[in-house]
Design brief:
Layout: H1 4-11, H2 15-26, E1 30-35, E2 41-45, H3 46-62, E3 70-74, H4 79-91, E4 94-97, H5 104-114, E5 118-122, H6 123-126, E6 141-145, E7 153-155, E8 176-181, E9 191-195, H7 196-210, E10 217-220, H8 227-238, E11 242-246, H9 251-261, E12 265-267, H10 270-277, E13 292-295, H11 302-311, E14 316-321, E15 332-336, E16 352-353, E17 359-363, E18 376-381, E19 388-389, H12 393-399, E20 405-413, E21 419-424, E22 429-431, E23 434-436, H13 438-445, E24 451-461, E25 465-474, H14 482-490, E26 501-505, H15 518-524, H16 528-532
Parallel strand pairs: 1-11, 3-4, 3-5, 5-6, 6-7, 10-11, 10-12, 12-13, 13-14, 25-26
Antiparallel strand pairs: 1-2, 8-9, 9-19, 14-15, 15-16, 17-18, 18-20, 20-21, 22-23, 24-25
Length: 533
């Protein structure tokens, strides 16, 4: 008689299984080249990565970790962090990455909220948590990544010693694989429950829509604590590619590594692509091995496209629109080779509907579909959509009502089926009774030849309610007056959409996921209008 476990092993979708299959197919191939922030290099093969995941999984089970237990982890990018994720997948535990840029009290809150029984921490980050570690009373075992550990901690190296046979655990495809928290750029982070089946669907979506093959070398510099990086790492390893992983996203190092390893693809938010264009070594390194440049999260500035297409003439820039709740798979995507190919010259373009993954609708406040040219909230459903938010019935009821996930993103489409990101619903500016979409203004402002990067947001205004405001980083060596940028926008936008103020900066506040933090810009300039008057 066939047992339940045997039937489960026959049919399931599991992240741990995908690594085993790759290891058996290309065991000697380099899975990961890893570089520390100081430039120290190490590499690990598929066979070694698979073996380490088994050893850690066995040790966790021997120490009492069971299916459904939560393993919280806080670290910059590392091979050990990824090994832990795969080990958790193989025993049915939940992998719970924690943002290392949070304040200690916030880290404690997320660890306790997740009900994690084990907490893994990188040694370089441990000092910041000294004031809260003793108050994490729900944690049964603390572990420090590395070979040594302070009193009260286990060294991760201990978990890398022992038998390497693969654990046999009944894990359903719809079981939770990870709980990753939303970035919290607008509100408190929410715990997103992502299943093994979600990851399987997201992998398939990326392979179909981006055309990955196993010969590619992928630069992974965005933090593994976020869904996009974790999904892309597992995608690459499922597809038997080689990853060049950096501990942190340092643009000069990333540029050097593209040349050194003949990297063919990467995925970064516009903030990092723009930062790389501004680096001195961007013009001196050979970057023409690049074929795929994927981006998301913000309006794509013309300066970014022009700079990269000159340095990597064989590459295509892929604009992707997705989110944590979509397992970082795309609802819409498309690619161009130059700014001239950008539909309508609009940096808000996020492509057309994907070949797999989700149904997409744009609706008004009464859930009626809006016609082309009219902005509406994006609602979606499909196998890439999360299982739900952890311990948040109110958010689940609000976001999942009617059998559709409410993304909170506002988009519009044209007659040709191109989709454009208008704004987050919460980011929309109300000025003089009119709705202003920040990304529309950013798209226009970003076409000025002096502008490298920009962010548009609303500030309180006694007359208008909110006034349209812009923060701008100029291209190196270029000067321009505020009045010229305002005039540039006024020529292309309605008067109520034109920025009332432009502030010049040398950098932008960003999150660990390298997303612009507009709330910090709003706080910094909160009194600007009162001062001006």
């Amino acid at each position: 008689m066939v047992t339940d476990l045997e039937m489960n092993l026959l049919h399931r979708q599991n992240l741990g299984d995908s690594l085993r299959r790759s290891a058996r197919g290309v065991g000697d191939k380099t899975a990961i080249h890893f570089y520390t922030a100081q430039g120290e290099h190490s590499e690990v093969s598929y066979a070694s990565l698979d073996r380490m995941a088994n050893v850690v999984a066995n040790n966790l089970m021997r120490r009492g970790v069971a299916k459904g237990d939560k393993l919280a982890a806080m670290s910059r990018n590392s091979v050990e962090f990824l090994v832990l994720g795969y080990a958790a997948n193989r025993i049915g535990a939940w992998f719970v990455p924690i943002n290392f840029m949070l304040q200690p009290a916030d880290v404690r809150h997320l660890v306790e909220f997740s009900e994690a029984k084990w907490f893994f921490v990188e040694d370089a980050l441990l000092g910041n948590l000294a004031s809260v570690i003793d108050r994490m009373t729900g944690v049964r075992q603390f572990v420090q990544f590395g070979k040594t550990a302070p009193a009260g901690f286990m060294a991760f190296a201990e978990l890398l010693q022992g038998p390497d046979d693969e654990p046999q655990v009944l894990i359903d495809s719809d079981d939770v694989a990870t709980m990753l928290f939303t970035s919290g750029t607008e509100s408190a982070p929410k715990g997103v429950l992502t299943t093994h089946a979600n990851y399987h669907a997201a992998h398939l979506s990326w392979m179909l829509n981006a055309g990955f093959d196993r010969s590619e070398v992928f630069l992974l510099s965005i933090p593994l604590i976020h869904t996009a990086a974790f999904l892309l790492s597992t995608l690459c390893l499922t597809n038997q590619m080689t990853i060049v992983m950096t501990q942190t996203p340092q643009p000069p190092q990333m540029i050097d590594l593209i040349e050194r390893h003949q990297i063919t693809s990467t995925a970064l938010p516009p903030t990092l692509y723009v930062a790389m264009v501004a680096c001195p070594n961007f013009r001196t390194r050979r970057l023409d091995s690049m074929r795929k440049l994927m981006s998301w999260a913000s309006t794509i500035p013309k300066a970014m496209v022009d700079g990269w297409m000159e340095a990597a003439p064989h590459a295509r820039l892929h604009s992707v629109q997705g989110m944590t709740e979509s397992t970082a798979a795309a609802y819409t995507t498309g690619s161009v080779r130059s700014w001239a190919e950008m539909p309508n010259g609009d940096g808000r373009w996020v492509g057309t509907l994907t070949a797999f993954g989700a149904d997409v609708r744009l609706v008004d406040d009464d859930d009626r579909d809006v016609p082309p040219g009219v902005a509406g909230e994006q609602i979606v459903r499909g196998p890439i959509v999360m299982k739900g938010y952890y311990k948040n019935d109110e958010a689940n009821a609000r976001a999942l009502r009617g059998g559709w996930f409410r993304t909170g993103d506002v988009l519009f489409r044209d007659e040709a089926g191109n989709y454009y990101f208008a704004d987050r619903k919460k980011d929309m500016i109300k000025s003089g009774g009119e709705n202003v979409y920040c990304q529309e203004v950013e798209s226009v402002l970003g076409t000025h030849p002096a502008v490298l990067q920009c962010a548009v947001f609303g500030l309180p205004d006694e007359r208008w309610g909110e006034s349209v405001t812009a923060a701008v980083i100029l291209r190196p060596g270029v000067q321009v007056e505020e009045a010229e940028l305002v005039a540039h926008c006024r020529d292309k936008l309605a008067g109520f959409k034109t920025p009332k103020r432009v502030f010049f900066r040398t950098s932008m506040p960003i999150s660990a996921a390298n997303k612009l933090l507009k709330r910090e810009l709003k706080a910094e300039y909160a009194n600007a209008n009162a001062t001006a008057s």
